[in-house]
From TrEMBL:
Keywords: Membrane, Transmembrane, Transmembrane helix. It comes from the Eukaryota. This is Nodulin-like domain-containing protein. The chain crosses the membrane at residues 21-42, 86-107, 158-176, 182-201, 213-233, 245-266, 344-362, 413-432, 438-461, 527-548. It is found in: Membrane. InterPro entries: MFS_trans_sf, NFD4_C, Nodulin-like. It comes from Gossypium schwendimanii. It is a multi-pass membrane protein. Pfam families: NFD4_C (PF23262), Nodulin-like (PF06813). Residues 338-554 form the NFD4 C-terminal domain. CDD domains: MFS_Mch1p_like. GO terms for cellular component: membrane.
Length: 569
């Protein structure tokens, strides 16, 4: 089989590559690498608190608004059901820039000080944009690679987890150590990426690749290399004072590693190109579909599982009439069938406890470091560690749970149970800190937080099908902002401010005597994190119910129908 490309073939190959699903996957990696700006809230939240004179409860309310916007993705899912992917990405870009740009204007004093409710709307709008990136890039990629959805979700959400550390390096190189400019960066950069690749990402017919698993492991290797470099450079920056040129050099290497999956995508598209020129086996006619440059067998019609087949005359009933007539697990549920099923509600409760507590811990990490007496430079490293280990948690849960399902038929919800139990250890380390324990807690919290998202998204796709996945996976994470509001605003923020007021009273001061309400000491977050530990443990027990309910389903061949459809290619 030929491996090279002649000069006259360069343009046709380039066009095929730009329209192929491997380049679309690479573009999805870049979009997801810019879709995690919400994880940088711990870095710039102190700037908002100081500039706008907020107490911790108000700041936590702002954090809840961020989590609400980041997790209420039903609108993006419904929009994706009736509009093309490019429109979804454009709406997300507009929301991202508009929301964060208004926050930047407020923090830099370029506009009058907004009301608290206005700031909540700004950050909610900006954070909601990541749902449009998720729906446009993540859902499309899962449909393009249905047999590798666990690995796919782990990789894509992994890049989202790394985005905080990636954008930190870029902002240090471009703007220096100015957290106000970081807000501006997370406003324009993700929006620009979505606009550039707006026509690249679209649903294509799945093609059975002989070495698809190996290719995804190569993507995994590239992403791990990026994560390791980010971790090393982050720790080095805390020990050594970098010059402007050194920051620029580090950012350049980071960008090169972010773009490294492009070489793998080119190689895989070249393989398809050569297969078209030199088909293996009998001289069967090979054609290329007009809408997607993948190899298709002529005279055969391939349909996505869950899509109506040609000639299917069956008249569908109203979704309200079929709400109690649910299909088998793994088949395509309607939106109402899925939302009213016991499996979804059990998953909802586990997500409420698990992600709600994790978001609370991540949002308060900056203030936790401050209360324990760590310098600002070290607090920034905690936030970066959470971002990096967030990535490791995502790719680990995606690839490991996929391997356990395929080889050993282990239910994916069991992985979620283990992850929630691990998170309890991180919360205990915050509640009862020891010297240096916050470093370990940051790693555990980041890892467990990241591991939950791919598991939740994959479980929803496996139990309820892909037909309405755009809406269902967004509905599935609605429990997260609800948990964040209760655990972050009503619980953690209230208890923190109460301890801070006690400290003021011991000093003979009142609230009006200080500009910012600050609590210093290990007692500030002890009680909230003890409660979070018990809540997360309850979530782990809840997820065991789903393990028991789905164990027979996961013992079957859950990817059989996708494999049968792809084998005709």
């Amino acid at each position: 089989m030929g491996r090279g490309i002649k000069g006259s073939e360069l343009l046709p190959f380039t066009l095929q590559f730009l329209r192929g699903r491997w380049f679309a996957l690479f573009a999805s990696f870049l979009i997801m690498a810019g879709a995690g700006a919400t994880y940088l809230f711990g870095t710039y939240s102190k700037e908002i608190k100081a500039t706008l004179d907020y107490d911790q409860t108000t700041l936590n309310l702002l954090g809840f608004s961020k989590d609400l916007g980041a997790n209420v993705g039903v609108f993006s899912g419904l929009i994706a059901e009736v509009t093309p992917t490019w429109f979804v990405l454009l709406v997300g870009a507009a929301l991202n820039f508009g929301g964060y740009f208004m926050i930047w204007l407020a923090v830099t004093g370029r506009i009058a000080k907004p009301k608290v409710w206005q700031m909540c709307i700004y950050i909610c709008i900006g954070a909601n944009s990541q749902n449009f990136a998720n729906t446009g890039a993540l859902v499309t990629s899962v449909k393009n690679f249905p047999e590798s959805r666990g690995s796919m979700l782990g990789l894509l959400k992994g890049y989202t987890g790394l985005s905080g550390a990636v954008m930190t390096q870029i902002y240090l190189a471009v703007y220096g150590n100015d957290s106000k400019s970081l807000i501006l960066l997370i406003g324009w950069l993700p929006a620009a990426i979505s606009v550039i690749f707006v026509y690249t990402i679209r649903t294509m017919k799945p093609v059975r690749h002989p070495n698809e698993v190996c290719v995804f492991y190569q993507f995994l290797g590239a992403s791990i290399l990026l994560a390791v470099f980010l971790m090393l450079i982050t720790l080095t920056e805390k020990l050594v004072t970098f010059s402007k040129a050194a920051y620029a050099g580090a950012a350049t290497l980071v960008c090169f590693l972010v773009f490294s999956p492009l070489f793998i995508s080119v190689r895989e598209e070249l393989l398809i190109w050569n297969m078209q020129k030199h088909p293996i086996g009998s001289p069967m006619e090979i054609t290329v579909d007009k809408s997607t440059p993948e190899i298709l067998e002529s005279k055969q019609v391939v349909s996505m599982p869950g899509s109506p087949k040609q000639g299917d005359e069956k008249v569908e009933k109203s979704c309200l009439l079929t709400i109690c007539d649910r299909p088998e697990r793994g088949e395509d549920y309607t939106i109402l069938q899925a939302l009213t099923s016991l499996d979804m509600w059990v998953l909802f409760l586990a997500t409420f406890c698990g992600l709600g507590a994790s978001l609370t811990a991540v949002d308060n990490l900056g203030q936790i470091g401050e209360s324990l007496g760590y310098p600002n430079k070290t607090v920034t490293s905690f936030v970066s560690l959470v971002s990096i280990w967030n990535f490791f948690g995502r790719v680990f849960s995606g690839f490991v749970s996929e391997t356990l399902i395929v080889k050993y038929k282990v239910p994916r919800p069991l992985m979620m149970t283990l992850v929630l139990l691990l998170a309890c250890i991180g919360y205990v380390l915050v509640a009862f800190p020891m010297p240096g324990s916050l470093y370990v807690a940051s790693i555990i919290i980041g890892f467990s937080f990241g591991a939950q998202l791919p598991l939740i998204f994959a479980i929803i796709s496996e139990l309820f099908g892909l037909k309405y996945y755009s809406t269902l996976f967004n509905c599935g994470q609605l429990a997260s902002p609800l948990g964040s509001y209760i655990f972050n605003v009503k619980l953690t923020g209230f208890l923190y401010d109460r301890e801070a007021m006690k400290d003021l009273a011991r000093k003979g001061l009142t609230r009006s005597s200080v500009k910012a309400l600050t609590c210093i000491g290990s007692h500030c977050y002890r009680l909230p994190f003890i409660i979070l530990t018990f809540v997360t443990f309850f979530g782990a027990l809840t997820s065991l119910i789903l393990v028991v309910r789905t164990r027979n389903y996961y013992r079957s061949d859950i990817y059989k129908k996708f494999r049968e459809n792809a084998q005709s290619l």
